[in-house]
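Dear Dr. H.,

I hope your travels went smoothly. While you were away I took the liberty of generating a structure for the chain from your last submission, since the lab meeting agenda had it listed for discussion. I wanted you to have the full record in hand beforehand rather than looking at slides cold. The sequence, exactly as received, is reproduced here:
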Amino acid sequence: MPVINRIAEFHDEITAWRRDLHANPELLFDVHRTAGIVAEKLREFGCDEVMTGLGQTGVVAIINGRGGPGKTIGLRADMDALPVTEKTGAPHASTVPGKMHACGHDGHTSMLLGAAKYLSETRNFSGRVALIFQPAEEGGGGGKVMIEDGLFEKVAIDEVYGMHNWPGMPVGHFGIRVGGIMAATDRFYIDVVGQGGHAARPQQTVDPLIVSAQMVVALQTIVSRNLDPMANAVLSVTMLEAGEADNVISRTAKITGTVRTLDPDVQDFIEAKLNEMVPQFAKSFGAEASIRYVRGYPVTVNSERETAFAADVARDVVGEERVDDDVAPSLGGEDFSFLLQERPGAYIFLGNGNSSELHTDTYDFNDDAIPVGVSYWARLVEKALPVG
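The corresponding predicted structure, in token form, is as follows:
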């Protein structure tokens, strides 16, 4: 089955919603305007129940099918933007300085609203669907906060599904895989302490900047010389801070970075290796160093049955040749991972065409993808919860 005709009919309407959200971006949990619009439209569509304020500003709607009792399928979209100054020059560009929908959450929210409109009209399914509109995906862990606020207690969801637009993948294509599809996103903070002094007498100091520079190089060997080359992992040092004057060797330095992994065993190994290596390395220079390792979002792990099912739904919408069911995983992070730790489900990539990359100031969600994404949501519910 291709794109659903009824959904194609309100493509322009969904596009207008999306561009309004794009012009008015909000960050993290402070998505009051967005959440208000979402709740208003869900009530307008005739959803059976609309819950607000879950996880601070999350919105959850329930639509009951006409086919009687059955499972509850959860569909999730994220609502927040990024602290980026937009440079697209689009007519619908951000009107809020320093804030921008640079990851397409405006598109995700609008597509799930489109699915809500269609499913409320047709109700061609059994059981019920729970539509989850989540704040604070971009670093705030909004998915985890919604769970802690009772998401799965308030709504007995059996399976949960998510979707993200994917630049570089053609519009009308999908990508999915069993297992880890997006990475765990950990951070580390290293404090190096040496002995400061005059820059003209370095022999009287233990220069923490020299120690840090050597340590940055040495840290790369954790991945390149300690892990199996087939393991997926990234260790990136992103900040090195030291000193306040050009004639003073500082007493301290700070190193900050990120670790991305797709396997919990690899994640454990890198954390342990950093904790072992950092103080010993600094000691070899006569300095001291401590490390704080902070685990962020876990690996986004697609369950086997639900991934196969989601791939079949995508094939129903766009055809066999446009679905890659062994897509390469991404070392980006995603807090939908918290939901998948609680319930079986699957996360899928939706082609955004030849757009700028995610998290860049020239990115924009491709509105041509809207009917494809909405049709996927609708078919997923109807196929998972057939009438009769």
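Two observations you may find useful: The mean pLDDT is 97. The first strand starts at residue 49 and ends at 54.

With kind regards,
E. W.
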